[in-house]
Amino acid sequence: MATIYATGKRKSAIARVWLTPGKGDMNINGKTLDEWLGGHETLKMKVRLPLEATKQLEAVTIKATTLGGGYSAQADALKHGITKALAIYEPSFRTILKPMGLLTRDSRVVERKKPGKKKARRSPQFSKR
Known about the structure:
Ribosomal Protein S5, domain 2; 5 strands; 5-stranded mixed beta sheet
């Protein structure tokens, strides 16, 4: 089977994911998952979640590039990209991934700053005198 491409997004982070049948290697920005996320075990679990749910941890090879946002948002974007790629790779995986909420893009983004405010909603301090 050919290489499958999918894009995952979260906040301002974008992950481009290429999924191929293989032996379970994961290459993110030229590094392994452990090198890329270091000691953040919960984020590593989050990234592996769609693969574990579909039992494809040792069956597919993933190459990904991430950019924008922080490492946590990038990990969420990568999870979203892997999920979308798996749904294309095997359409029956969609029934497993959809109820877990993994196919839904987390649409929460930073609210814009408004004029006359210090931040999006924070007003300047009020002084009576």
